[in-house]
Structures are given as C-alpha cells and as structure tokens.
Design a protein that fits this description.
The complex is a heterodimer of chains A (191) and B (425). By secondary structure, chain A is α+β, with helices and mostly antiparallel strands. Chain A has 4 helices and 7 strands. The termini of chain A are far apart. Chain B has 425 residues and is mainly alpha-helical. The chains are: A alpha+beta (191), B mainly alpha (425). Strand 1 of chain A pairs parallel with strand 1 of chain B.
Chain lengths: 191, 425
Amino acid sequence: MSEKNKYQNRRDFVKKMGTLAVALPIGFLGYKLVQQTSAQEFVWQIDPNLCTQCGQCETNCVLTVSAVKCMHAYEMCGYCDLCSGYLRQGVKELNTGAELQLCPTSAIKRNFIENPYFSYTIDEELCNGCGKCVKGCAAFGNGSLYLQIKHELCVNCNLCAIAQTCPADAIQRVPSSQPYLLKSGYKAKES
Amino acid sequence: MKKKILYILLMLFIGWQSISYGQQRFPKPEFESGYDYPEYQLTNPSSPIWEYIDVAVLIIVLILTTRFTLKTRSRKSILFVAAFSLAYFGFFREGCICSIGSIQNIALALFNDGYTIPLSVLLFFLIPILFTIGYGRQFCAGACPLGAIQELTAIYPVKLPKTIETILSTVPYIYLALSILFAATDSHFIICKYDPYVGIFRLNGPSTIMIFGILLLISGVFINRPYCRFLCPYGVILGWVSRFSGKHLSITPDNCTNCRLCETSCPYEAIIPADFLEVKEPMLKSRKKFMLYLILLPIITLGAAYFSLQFADNLALVNQKVRLANELRIEKEMGVKAISMDAVTFKESGSTLEQLYEEETQIIKRFEKGTPWAGGFLGLSLGIALLLTTINRKRDSYKPDQGKCYSCGRCFEYCPIHVEKLNIK
C-alpha cells in the first residue's frame, strides 16, 4: 500500500513541477510584455502623402467592397470645370456623360455652382476605393481627392490585408483616438 | 531690365515649386453665390471599450465552461456556451481579435521595439493559457469561435487511420513555427491571412478563403474539428500546457470500471484506454529505446536547426521588401524588366537601390537568426514525441489525453456511471 502511495506521490510531484515549468515562462512572458503594452488601441489608416494610388486598396481589402473610400478636401479643391479627377484624359466635352467619367462606378457627382465653378462630391455607397480619381487629381489638379479607410466599414484586421501588399507602405497603425489622416481643411466630427 | 529677369526667375521658381508638390495648381475659388463647403461626417472606430468588454466576456465564458465541464458535467450547457461564443466573438465581433492570431502580435512585440501591443491583445493571449494551466483546454471547448463552429457542425464522426492522423497532426507545429518566424520578422501574419472561418463570420471575404472555409466546414461534419486538430497553432501551445494542468475533465465522475463504453465516443482520438488489453513491450527494451531517443533528442534538435538554416533565404522571400529587392536585382543583372507594382512604385519613389539592398540584408539576417530557432523547435517537438512513445505508464482506467482533449464533454453520456448519477438526481 505504502508502495503505491509513494508511486502516486512521485507522479504528482512530476506533474506539479511540470505545471510550474509551464507557468513560469508564461508568467515571465506576460511580465515582459506588460511593460510594452499600451492601453491605446490601434486602427489602420492611409497616409495620403505616401499613397501612390496603385489600386490595391480596391482589390486587397478582406471586404469585397473595400473599406477604403475616396474623400474630398473641399477647401483644397479648385472647383474646376475641367476636373482631372472626374473626367478622362483628352475628353472633348465637359459634362456628366458616363463615357467621360474616370470613376468606374460613377461615384463622383458633379454639380454646377456658379460660373465657372463646379463642385464634386463623392457617393461613398458607390465608391470602391480604386483611387483612379485620386490619381487624376494628384497628377493635374490640386490633389484634393485622397483615399482613407472608413472606420464604420473597416473590421480592423490584426494585419491589414492591404497594408501587407501596399507598395508604398502608406497604410499604418494609428492611435484610435486619431483615426483619420486628413488632408487639411476640416475636422473629424464626434459621433 | 535686370529687375524684370529677377521677377521672371522668381515667378518660375514659385511656379516650379507648386508643380513639384502637385498641390494647389488652381487657386481657391471665391464664390459669390454663397456656397458653403460641405461638411464631412466621419465616424470614429468603435470605441476601445469594446475590446475590454471582449476580455470580460472571454473570462465569463471561460468560467462558465470550466463549471460545466468539471462540476455540472453537462455537454448541453457547454454547447450553449460555445454557441454564444460563436455568436458573440464570431458573428458579432467578426472574429478579430482572437487568441489564435494574438500569437503573432506577441511575436511581433517581442522582437520589434517599435510595436506596442494593445493590452487587450496580450490578455487575449494569456487568459486562455492561464485557464488551461488550471483546468485544461476550456478555451477550445467554449470560448473559441473557431472551435465552436466546428464543434456545432461535428455531426457524423469518422475516424481517420492512425498514420494519417499522426502525419497531419504535425502540421500545427510547422504552422506555429512559421507564423512566429514571419510575425517576429514583421513579414506576414499568416494565421490571419489563412484563417478559414473568418470569412464565414463576416459573410464576406476573398473568394479563395471563403471556398477553403466552406470546404473545411463541410469536411468538419465527418472529420470533426479539422482546423483544431490539423492546423491550429494556438492548440499546440494549449495542448502542451494542458498536459500539466492542475485539474482536468474526467470521463467518469467516479471510479472508472473499465467498461469500455466510452472507447468509441471521442472523435478526436483523445481517450487513452486502460492498458490491460495491450501487449506491453518488455521493460528492458523500452528503456533501451528511451535512452536511445534521449541521446537522439539534442542531435535531432540541432540537426533540424542546421537543416532549416538552409531555407532561411527562401523563407525571407515572404517579406515584401526582400521580394522587391530580388526582383530589382534580377532586372539589373539579367535584364528581366521589373513590372510588379512594388517595383514600379519603388522606381517612382526615388530611393536608391543601395538603401533597399541594405534593408534586405538586415531582414535576411533576421531570418537567418530566427530560422534555426524555428527548426530547432520542430526538431525538439519531434524528439519529445519520440521519447513519449517509449514511456509506458501503468493505466488502470480510461482517461482523456490531456494534450488532445478539447474538453467538449462528448464522452460524458457514454459513461454509465455518469448516466446513473444523472438519473438519481
């Protein structure tokens, strides 16, 4: 009987040591990493100054309509009639004809304001984040169109699938208290 | 005259400046009709409070699962908790952040000073492990949305041949080693990229992953918990911790009578039968084997580490920068035009090849440092697995294999003592 007890005890002892051997490194890992934590959460955002409008945002987001949308810094916009973000290059007419538009989903709405100014607003329901308009605006215009990740859509993946392939490393982790990297001109509204 | 030239030069300079910055080529219009700039409605990301609600829910779910597996022993309750976790962590919170993926954040934080890991992610990594130290793999049973979706769809268990099972169960080790290596070198988060079920949680995702997920879900009806058994890297960690857990689910609530009724109950091959049926190896032989494997252990480990070092350069190609540098080098040396988006962007960016090559060597160096550890880990795991085959413990009752048991509670109802106790109640 005593023989059996001894046997059991030894097994218990080995098990306890095993538990300790497992718990110690994990405790150490926790201790080491706690010093490196921040209560701050991070979200993904595009730095418009680095963005090259390569078009990856449209296709590489895990959502099938990308969480990346085009935004417009109205106060930078020139309100041109010949808008290089709205119209294809080399068009003969300046109107809202679908064949003239750069945007594949016709998400940019052109409205007459006063001679010679036209306003351009983006319908984010339609925008697919391809960045064609952004490229046009940056190339020949004021660069007031730019891409941003919209946080009501973004599921905040652990590693953003677009950031993984972004050729310009423009997608970065930003603190969730300042979730947008806006071009100058307006502030984020609290929601 | 001189003044004029100066003015022209100045104008040219200003003009050139404005073109090179690509901004404000056209002046800000002055509207006369009283046009107001439209205002943007920007939504902030869901508040970080949610992350802490997640942690709280995780703890509550784990406590409940522990209670249901160890105390009330009710599979139904465990399934209810699992269904809740699937609904909450899976469909409501859309599968991110999960404990499985947090391995990569841990690796990234450990080896990259620039990355500060959010506290909630660290807690998501640690809390399930702490529960496993105490009570076994409660996380897999009730809290993991991936485990839950597989457990709830595991309807017709089919047993796999032993060899296939053994071969496939090495995959998680390789997956774990690679995911830590890639995350530590800040190259890729493969666990997230190839998470088969997250597309189902979001009802949205890349088509390849959606197809993979649905196929895995269908195959999971027959080969139960395919992800947990043959892929899950977090399961490797939990499995090893669970082997030393303080308390653990038991098949029978009382003394096992060796009735063998539970033998076929577990679809995960996690029940170790009592050994009165087995033909035992003679003691001397198994001891000799043990000594042999013990000597082999460091040899296998070091051998695997050395062997894996040969792959460091190839593994480094997972890194985007290394791929880009490779492409540009081929262009330079062999004249194959680099047309990838990365290459085109790089050429436009104006940084020099030397800078890129310098970065590339740094990254490859990190891979050369990390790969032997990953290989060594695989070798060590193999060595320990070999060692364990030689240990013949005396087993007088049917017990769960603590490493493999997901604490799902499937075996409870197969135990006549458990059923009898229920009836008395």
